[in-house]
Request: fold
Amino acid sequence: MIIIGIDTAIRKTGYGVIDMRTNGSFRILDCGLIRNAASLPHSECLRRLAGGIRELVSSFKPEAASIESAFVSRNVKTAMILSLARGAVITALAECGVPAFEYSPKSAKRAATGLGEADKSQVASIMANLGGLDVSQIPDDATDALALAFCHGNLALRSAGGLVRPPVPI
Reply:
């Protein structure tokens, strides 16, 4: 099962694409960033995010996408901008027919490392080791995206085996 994990942000959106196998192992197919310069207006950033997601979907043909759940921020402006980025990504996925599932950062990190409070270097190290990639090839902002993809893959496998309820797309 090909899964794309997406850690949304307006300036640097991390992504990770994995091939999750039925035995629980996986291979990292790609990971990286969709970057937007600070000088770009938000409308252009959103257009570029949606276009980047469409390109990734076209290249890898994922069966599912996993994104970070929305969080409450003390800074309302920051929360609104993040929500715009999430909306652009979710819309692009829906246009491409890819169901999106959301997980908390703690759930994703727990699935990847066993610790909900793991830092990016711990997540990157474990994802690289398990996914067959050199850790230096994983950008910091793509680590959570890989953990999100892995989290969904594990849950999808467990639900297929009847161990848990299947995840519900957003």
